[in-house]
Write a structure and sequence with these properties.
This protein is of the alpha+beta class. The chain contains eight helices and four strands, in the order H-H-H-H-H-H-E-H-E-E-E-H. It has a four-stranded mixed sheet with strand order 2-1-3-4, with helices on both faces. The longest helix has 21 residues.
């Protein structure tokens, strides 16, 4: 089965439980925490190594997560180790976070500008993206002088390129098309 499908299935099951027990926010933190622990090279090796007894893996995981996550989340981590799905945790955490965003009608927008933007400009960009997506936008701002001006926003799979660099490339292509048409005359 594909990694994404497996991750979504586990994330969906955990999300349903989090909704049922009204623990969405703590569970989101737990998913991030477990993914971070599983990403640790030493722990990851220990949890994936077939020669290490399951009992030792469970003990190590309980020690690593003790007091840091809810029991339900710890049980998920133990289940993933038992089913040899440790490498899926990062994708499960991402899928869970997307379910939380969808549930709250939110989206994360990676916005790149040529220079730092002031708070008023941030609000303007955020409102424009909210109008375009119909969702509450959580912005992550980046600066890249190479875009020359304007902004590029990535919201989910959509890219909105309002950069000067993009506009110049479109203008350049239009001029080439005109030149080619003139040459054909």
């Amino acid at each position: 089965m594909l990694k994404g499908a497996v991750a979504r299935r586990y994330a969906s099951a955990v999300f349903d439980l989090a909704l049922k027990y009204n623990t969405v926010d703590p569970t989101l933190q737990d998913m991030r925490e477990i993914a971070q622990v599983f990403a640790n090279r030493k722990i990851s090796y220990l949890l994936r190594e077939p020669k290490i007894p399951a009992r030792r893996k469970e003990e190590a995981l309980r020690v690593a997560l003790k007091g840091r996550v809810q029991d339900m989340s710890l049980n998920l981590a133990l289940l993933l180790v038992q089913r040899e799905l440790v490498e899926y945790m990062s994708a499960i955490a991402q899928a869970f976070e997307q379910l939380v965003l969808d549930y709250r009608n939110q989206a994360i927008a990676d916005v790149t500008t040529a220079t730092e933007v002031n708070p008023a400009e941030q609000v303007m960009i955020q409102r424009a993206l909210e109008h375009r997506t119909g969702k509450t936008i959580i912005m992550q701002l980046h600066v890249n002088p190479d875009i020359l001006g304007g902004a590029i926003a990535r919201v989910g799979d959509s890219i909105i390129d309002g950069s000067v660099r993009y506009r110049l490339s479109v203008l350049e292509q239009q001029l080439r098309d005109i030149q080619q048409q003139l040459n054909e005359l």
